[in-house]
Predict the 3D structure of the following.
Amino acid sequence: MEKKKLWRIVIYLSGILMVSLGIVLCKKSNLGISPVSSIPFVLESVTPYSFGTWTMLFHLGNIALQLVLTKKLLDVRIWLQVPVAFLFGTVIDVLQGAIRFDGTVPVFQWAALVFSAFFTALGMVCMITMDLIQNPPDGLVRRLSVMTGKELGQVKIGYDAGCVIVSACLSLALAGGVKGMGPGTVVSAVFVGKMVTWMRTAVKESPLKSP
């Protein structure tokens, strides 16, 4: 394998690790979960299955929707997202068990939230820049953007809003109240995107980026 390709794979996998770390830190901050993780968060709270397991299943659901929308059950680009879904779920559960801090102390909560936004954005940039396999939720957003003809950012806002609405409904129905909403939800929805834009601008001339 060429050294350049190997580095792209390493950076891409590092991106998965950092995004997973960002998700776990956001969850452990107890200040609210990101929109895209809100559904797994609620389902974890009312079932015996782990956050990582529900994240994996949520990603697989996004993959299934892509296959339905494309009407191409043998689309290799979509099926390649399956191992990414399993990897995300596994890494999230490992990090959840490894990272421990007092999530009731405000200074730790806000520090975790700030680092969550940073690692999530940096990980997303690594994955996007290496241009290998799309994260399943991002793949669905991109597919919806192509089908509707709407700008990617607009579709992403609608997708996040949909996740929050579904999670709120599930939470009310299964837990008797809304779970997971807070400052962390706002930070993830607003500031992570801005950080991704800034970071992508900073690395757009990266020699590792595919032509």
Observations:
- Residues 3-28 form the longest helix (26 residues).
- DSSP finds nine helices and no strands in the chain.
